[in-house]
């Protein structure tokens, strides 16, 4: 088939042609927007899940919904090496501009507060050349959101932005990707600000996305965080939605899949959105004609797996040091040894539910292994492995959702390590 018309789009955060299986989250968010616009109380939202399940894509789709509702929006990606003020100020700046408030003087006042909030990051004794200058063409306002206490300043910033939005009957939504990478002090401040804003009834919400342990990160910061946010676990797609993610874009180009081909694709991809796009793209280029058959998929699978081994798995594996790679391999072996019968070569069938066994029998997000089991595989004391474990958590390759347990952030990573990657 013509590769130029290939409809599939594997890529980090790249929206697929068919956003299948996320209708419930989109409908719920539309209700949240409308409720807040009418002055009803609502919680901020947190999306969690493994890498490759489409959290960033869904986050962008939710932002588009807010834009269509004429809200002010801003988005940034948290990084472990960056504090909150700069990226949040940039997002707030964009959100204020999108509101389209008719009174320029009031807009300038709030933008001056946003600027003051951003500039407070630099030490007071810092030279002018060392101070980061946000692209806001108004003077910084003194005495508001510039105390240096991030919690106080964030509450004041959200209060003033929310007041501006309320004036025009709109709302403001700040979208944060990789939310688990925020500094602990910034997480605490963000929770406190969301709490204050929800109590005051101002139309401001935060929509975050992160790895499965994000709820634990928030809970460790503020005990009330479980009541502060509406949590939505983003998982692999159920069979019907996975089929639609393949069939819908193909139908637009006059192509069909046989039922056997769909069975084969679900067995290989396990319904993970990124894998669906990655295999779908290669299958399209390899299949000679429509309809796509199960044999076409079997022929294309090695090439797709090779590309995933380099771009999806390998790029992450390469970020680890030799000691960290040893730990990762031991995790993969421990998962196999500690889950007899839970990890096999049996494929997924149409009867498997979306939270159960994946294409390789891996229990997806539930594939957590005890740190003691990893130490046992390596013949080491658990305490001696803490540096490698902590470094891998910081790099986003593993996570700990519960004390003493760890899991991969990437689906099928254990199988990749056992079959492809070499320690070194």
From TrEMBL:
Coiled coil: none annotated. InterPro entries: AAA_16, Cyt_c-like_dom, P-loop_NTPase. Residues 166-365 form the Cytochrome c domain. Keywords: Heme, Iron, Metal-binding. One of its GO terms (molecular function) is electron transfer activity. It comes from Humibacillus xanthopallidus. It holds the Pfam family AAA_16. Residues 1-21 are annotated as: Disordered. This is AAA ATPase-like protein. The keyword Disulfide bond does not apply.
């Amino acid at each position: 088939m013509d590769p130029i018309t290939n409809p599939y789009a594997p890529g980090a955060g790249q929206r697929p042609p068919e956003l299948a299986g996320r209708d419930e989250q989109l409908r719920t968010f539309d209700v949240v927007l409308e409720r807040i616009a009418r002055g009803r109380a609502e919680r901020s939202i947190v999306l969690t899940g493994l890498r490759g399940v489409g959290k960033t894509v869904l986050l962008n789709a939710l932002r588009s919904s807010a834009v269509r509702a004429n809200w002010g929006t801003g988005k940034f990606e948290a990084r472990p090496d960056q504090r909150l003020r700069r990226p949040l100020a940039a997002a707030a700046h964009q959100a204020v501009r999108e509101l389209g408030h008719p009174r320029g003087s009031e807009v300038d006042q709030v933008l001056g507060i946003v600027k003051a909030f951003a500039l407070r990051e630099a030490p007071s004794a810092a030279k002018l050349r060392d101070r980061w200058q946000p692209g806001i063409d108004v003077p910084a306002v003194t005495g508001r959101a510039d105390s240096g206490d991030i919690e106080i300043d964030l509450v004041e910033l959200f209060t003033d932005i929310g007041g501006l939005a309320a004036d025009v009957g709109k709302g403001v939504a700040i979208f944060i990707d990789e939310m688990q990478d925020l500094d602990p002090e910034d997480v605490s401040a963000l929770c406190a600000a969301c709490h204050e804003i929800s109590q005051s009834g101002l139309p401001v919400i935060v929509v975050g996305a992160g790895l499965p342990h994000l709820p634990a990160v928030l809970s460790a910061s503020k005990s009330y965080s479980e009541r502060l946010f509406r949590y939505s676990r983003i998982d692999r797609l159920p069979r019907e939605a996975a089929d639609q993610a393949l069939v819908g874009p193909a139908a637009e180009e006059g192509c069909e899949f046989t039922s056997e081909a769909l069975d084969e694709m679900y067995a290989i991809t396990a319904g993970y959105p990124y894998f669906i796009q990655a295999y779908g793209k290669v299958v399209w280029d390899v299949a000679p004609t429509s309809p796509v058959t199960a044999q076409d998929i079997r022929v294309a699978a090695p090439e797709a797996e090779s590309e995933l081994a380099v771009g999806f798995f390998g790029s992450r594996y390469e970020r680890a040091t030799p000691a960290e790679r040893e730990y990762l391999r031991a995790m993969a072996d421990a998962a196999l040894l500690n889950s007899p019968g839970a990890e096999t070569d049996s494929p997924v069938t149409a009867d498997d539910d979306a939270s159960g066994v994946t294409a390789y029998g891996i229990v997806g997000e539930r594939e957590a292994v005890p740190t003691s089991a990893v130490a046992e595989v390596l013949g080491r004391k658990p305490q001696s492995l803490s540096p490698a474990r902590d470094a891998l958590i910081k790099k986003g390759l593993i996570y700990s959702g519960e004390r003493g347990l760890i899991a991969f952030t990437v689906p099928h990573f254990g199988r990749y390590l056992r079959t492809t990657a070499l320690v070194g």
